[in-house]
Amino acid sequence: MSQEEQTLKEKQEEPAPKQRSLLKRIFVRQGTRSVILVPILAVFTALVIGAIIILVSSPDVITAWRNFPQAPGKALSLTWITVRDAYLTLLQGAFGSPAGIAAGFQTWVQSGDSKALREALRPFSESLTISTPYIFAGLGVALGFQGNLFNIGAEGQIFIGGLASVFVGYSISGLPWFIHLPLALMAGIAAGMVWGAVPGFLKARTGAHEVINTIMMNYIAFRLTDYLLSGPMARPGLPITPEIKTSAYLPLLFGQPMRVHWGFILALGAAVLVYWFLWKTPIGMEIRMTGQNLHAARYAGVSISVIIVLTMALSGALAGLAGTNQVLGVDHRLVRAFSSGYGFDSISLALLGNSHPFGVVLASLLFGFLRGGAARMQSVAGVPVEIIRIIQGLIIVFVAAPEIIRSLYRLKEVKKTGPVVAQTTEQS
Amino acid sequence: MPPVLELRGVTKTFPGVLANDHIDLTLNEGEILALLGENGAGKTTLMNILYGLYTPDEGEIYIRGEKVSIHSPSDAIARGIGMVHQHFMLVPVFTVTENVMLGNEATRSGIFLDRAVVAERVREISERFGLKVDPDAHIEDLSVGAQQRVEIIKVLYRQADILIFDEPTAVLTPQEVDDLFEVIHSLVKQGKSLIFITHKLNEVMSIADRIQVLRNGKVVGTTTPDQSTEASLASMMVGREVILEVEKKPAKPGEVVLEVKDLLVRDDRHLLAVKGISFQVRAGEVLGVAGVQGNGQTELVEALTGLRKVEGGQVTILGQETTTASPREITEVGSAHVPEDRLRDGLVLTLSVADNLVLNTYYQPPFSKGMSLKREEINKAAEIRVEQFDVRTPSVSVPVSNLSGGNQQKVIVAREFSRPIKLLIASQPTRGLDVGSIEYIHKRIIEKRDEGCAVLLVSPELEEVMSLSDRIAVVFEGKFLDIMPAEQAKREKLGLLMAGVQESVKEAVAA
Questions:
Q1: Is there a contact between A16 and B362 if contact means CB atoms under 8 Å apart?
Q2: Per CATH, the architecture of B5-238 is what?
Q3: pTM for this prediction
Q4: What is the spatial distance between Cα B319 and Cα A181, in angstroms, rounded to a whole number?
Q5: A4/B331 CB distance under 8 A
Q6: Beta pairing, strands B335-338 & B423-427
Q7: With 50 as the cut, is the pLDDT of residue A9 above it?
Q8: How many Cα atoms are found within 13 Å in the side-chain-facing hemisphere of A171?
Q9: Is residue A292 less than 8 Å (CB to CB) from chain B?
Q10: Distance (Å, whole) CA B219 – CA B213
Q11: CB A23 within 8 A of CB A347
């Protein structure tokens, strides 16, 4: 195709907004059906490909297939068993074993002793615990996306939020929990807010791209953590902060050994709050207007620079809460690399959740369950944890490039609706 | 001899829309066929089918009696079909020759570009058809009219003999339109056949051999200029009687609403685009600003509405200085703005019709109270405005991108006109709209004037400025060349002013 034709084709297919960023092409609603269908099919396809990789990487299966002419039945059954075992253990690792849960439930009903039930539900609780920071950070990135701002700095904001909360958590003592815990939470929110607002301010003031500046802020956060853990905030001789006071703990929801804590409820609350804020308040409307069409927002009298700083600050605050959540709910202290990439994964989650708060919650639960189940899959079925990483990666690729899914499943292209194409190409 | 081009029963549906419904079309050798229709009538879809951008669901295409199927623009070009696009597809920093070669590069020994050969062909084509284009000129140095001629050369260089012109006059001055028509006549004289897409009636009358009218994806009739009048064509297009002349009473100008003194504004490249403009607009009158696009109108309007920084001078609205005011402050003074580019500035396409109807009032009661948007109030107001302004939409909650161009513009007009406004700044309010919508919006503008609103109308459409304005200013290279009462503004005089020719200068030369 010549260059002229190509530009022509593009012109036909992308009529309406003049400057469509990559972000917008991904996030502009393309009809509800495809919004829901594509992620589901993406997950399914990724699991199928994951199964193929599991098979190919298993020496037993390969040997069985080498001997296929002699023993075809064995090759087929081994293939089936390998995949089944891998995904069954994944499920059990994520949710717990149904038999165990049933037995535990029975004891609880009969004797009132919930210990066995809690023990059986532990995998489920672990998955929810892993999901929680994902939800916070994913909401942060999604809020940025709604304002057409790409907050890559969630990871750094998590560190800063964690640092602030842990400091408030261990340095103050003698407070009742209902003062200490909110104080520690607020500290994390405020710190994340500042870390997000700085790149926002730089963008609003100088036009410096937020992607560059959030990345730079990440490095500052990482090195600041290193420094504080090498002395000022460290225990003597150890790169670990002191334990926070129990008055700053996010309490467990059900008690040991289930680690799921009130942070999970807070995360769900945050999702509802973000939804309300974006769609039911004037400021939320300004963020979405600015995100969808900066020029029209300016025309409508929105102060773009204020909105950019605000969006980044709120995005940072939510990501900061992810760090706070880990420190107050799970670790109760802060170690180097305590976040293990939640911030970067959260970008994928916002993408997978179509930048909608509820979508982010679902995506985070999915990733939490995948990660929660992976350990058991490795120990029981002998499938390396990395498979889960591959599956996560594939899901993201398919969601980011929905054309693959659409052509694979022969979905109709929803974007190219008649009226829009017909009119906009005729306007002068 | 079979016709050069024949379409039989061409049908194309998009989800939910029948864009072309069994269209038959015949183009004879050496003929100019005007394809006339409102926006959304299916003209462009039909031409995109012909150019290989869409595949028809049904129907056949014959070229010189031979049945063909066209799957891509390269197929179309190979069959001798060429398209002159409304939006030029040229690389500004390349020369004419380089632009002509692009995508079809001539080479020496397969490696080196052979500019000389192409330049020679360009010169040849240019002379043969009277196109007056220098092959070595850079595109960015050429006028809009000349750039369009480069587009024509591109098509001719690829040996097209069926030429499709898609709304070619939208960007031209009246004089450039005359030049274009001359070129078109010389093309036809030398055996080319032409399809001329437009919704401008006067052009059709003056240039077409035959006229085919489309409405709602169907052919409603084929006629010739001799057998029709502008009014009869308009009613064919719209499907009802259309009042082409805007009926209005004499203006009753009142107090000064907008006063501009020595305004200086820079464009995006930091060059002065508005170079000391001064004028007043009074309550109850329409001041029209005529001029070819790109002479500072955009910057002028943006400066007045607070979207662009004012470099120097003073702007006063109702006695209140607004030179450095923000868009919101200016809106709150009682000023309304119908922006030049509705898709860029006027609407957020992904938001609903209801949201777009409160795009600049959403934060005020009753639409907002404290920290929450009052969804019911917004929807209720939207229902009323959709009804009042006859916006055709399935519901107020669909994204405004689902609406046709005319209805999108009505959304903007409904939003701006239903506020209590004292000043209306309308920039190209009917750009790209169909006859029916133009008629409607013109009527509403005059209504606002009669209610005592001051109106500043900026438009490159001379007809529009002449029919709506009480006084007319002509802008050229960032300056007002003249402001005159509408009665004294003759088409020729305005045309010359738009081209920068001042009568006093001309007289001086003549003397």
A1: no
A2: 3-Layer(aba) Sandwich (3.40)
A3: 0.77
A4: 56
A5: no
A6: parallel
A7: no
A8: 13
A9: yes
A10: 6
A11: no
Hey, is the C-beta of B334 within 8 angstroms of any chain A C-beta? no
Residue in the structure block whose two tokens are 């309308």: B426
Tell me the per-residue pLDDT of B409-449, one tens digit each, with 9 for 90 and over.
999 999 999 999 999 999 999 887 777 888 889 999 999 99
ipTM, two decimals, is 0.77
Nearest Cα neighbor of A361 from A284, A291, A269 is A269
Report the distance separating Cα B314 and Cα B324, nearest Å.
9
Instruction: Write the residue in A281, A297, A422 that is nearest to B14 by C-beta.
Output: A422
Written as six digits, the tokens of B86 are: 């409304």
A22 at interface of B, judged by CB pairs closer than 8 A: no
**Sequence-distant (≥ 6) Cβ neighbours of residue B290 within 8 angstroms:** B459, B460, B462, B465, B466, B472, B473, B474, B475, B494, B497, B498
pLDDT tens digits for B444-488?
Answer: 999 999 999 999 999 988 888 999 999 999 998 899 998 999 988
* C-beta atoms surrounding A246 within 10 Å: 12
Query: Could you state, in order of their start, the residue ranges of all structural domains in chain A?
Result: 133-249+259-365
- CA-to-CA separations, A100 to A87, A114, A122, A123, B186, in angstroms, rounded: 18, 12, 11, 11, 89
CB contact under 8 A, B102 and A301: no
Written as six digits, the tokens of B418 are 């239903």
Residue B122 pLDDT: 92
Helix or strand (DSSP H, E) at B151: helix B144-157
Does 3.10.450.590 match the CATH number of domain B256-510? no
Domain residues of chain B, as ranges?
5-238, 256-510
**Cα gap A121→A98, rounded to integer Å:** 9
Q: Which helix (H) or strand (E) holds B7?
A: strand B5-14
Q: What is the pLDDT of residues A194-230, one digit of tens each?
A: 999 999 999 999 999 999 999 999 999 999 999 999 9
Does A114 reach chain B within 8 Å, measured CB to CB? no
DSSP string, B412-471: HHHHHHTS--SEEEEESTTTT--HHHHHHHHHHHHHHHHTT-EEEEEES-HHHHHHH-SE
Same CATH topology for B5-238 and B256-510: the answer is yes
Per-residue HEC secondary structure of chain A comes to CCHHHHHHHHHHHCCCCCCCCHHHHHHCCCCHHHHHHHHHHHHHHHHHHHHHHHHHCCHHHHHHHHCCCCCHHHHHHHHHHHHHHHHHHHHHHHHCCHHHHHHHHHHHHHHCCCHHHHHHCHHHHHHHHHHHHHHHHHHHHHHHHHCCCCCCCHHHHHHHHHHHHHHHHHHCCCCCHHHHHHHHHHHHHHHHHHHHHHHHHHHHHHCCCHHHHHHHHHHHHHHHHHHHHCCCCCECCECECCCCCHHHCCCECCCCCCCCEHHHHHHHHHHHHHHHHHHHCHHHHHHHHHHHCHHHHHHCCCCHHHHHHHHHHHHHHHHHHHHHHHHHHHHCCCECCCCCCHHHHHHHHHHHCCCCHHHHHHHHHHHHHHHHHHHHHHHHHCCCCHHHHHHHHHHHHHHHCHHHHHHHCCCCCCCCCHHHHHHHCCCC
Contact (Cβ atoms closer than 8 angstroms) between residue B7 and residue B60: yes
Residue pLDDT, tens place only, B21-42: 999 999 999 999 999 887 667 8
B268 to chain A: which residues are within 8 Å by CB?
Answer: none
User: Which residue of B11, B13, B237, B350 to mutate against A (max A Cβ within 10 Å)?
Assistant: B350
Residues of B in contact with A30 (CB under 8 A): none
